[in-house]
Automatic annotation (TrEMBL):
Residues covered by the Flagellar motor switch protein FliN-like C-terminal domain: 6-73
Subcellular compartments: Cell membrane
Family the entry assigns: Belongs to the FliN/MopA/SpaO family.
Single Gene Ontology BP annotation: bacterial-type flagellum-dependent cell motility
Main localization, broad class: membrane
UniProt source species: Siculibacillus lacustris
Name of the molecule in the record: Flagellar motor switch protein FliN
PANTHER family recorded: FLAGELLAR MOTOR SWITCH PROTEIN FLIN, PTHR43484
Topological category with respect to the lipid bilayer: Peripheral membrane protein
Gene coding for it: fliN
Source species, domain of life: Bacteria
Length: 88
């Protein structure tokens, strides 16, 4: 067992987005359909702790929905300031 085995990461998948006026949102009930700005063939965004980490495609496996990762996003390493060398 490693120290990383007990660390949890919140994974979210974003299918699409839309802008809905609050009055329309308040009138929605069970069965309401919210149209998104995405098509069935579009990639979804995969977030880890609200940070984009990958893109993927929705896959259906029996009665389950999954995501196949199509692209992993790499982040540039955090910039570290160089040590200042004083010359005399």
């Amino acid at each position: 067992m490693t120290p990383f085995d007990n660390i949890g990461v919140d994974i979210s998948v974003v299918l699409g987005t839309t802008l809905v006026p609050i009055h329309q949102l308040l009138r929605m009930g069970r069965g309401a359909v919210i149209e998104l700005d995405a098509r069935e063939s579009d990639d979804v965004k995969i977030l880890a702790n609200d940070i984009p980490v990958a893109h993927g495609q929705v896959v259906l496996r029996g009665d389950r929905i999954g995501i196949t990762i199509t692209e992993v996003l790499f982040r540039a390493p955090a910039h570290r300031p160089r040590e200042t060398v004083r010359r005399m």
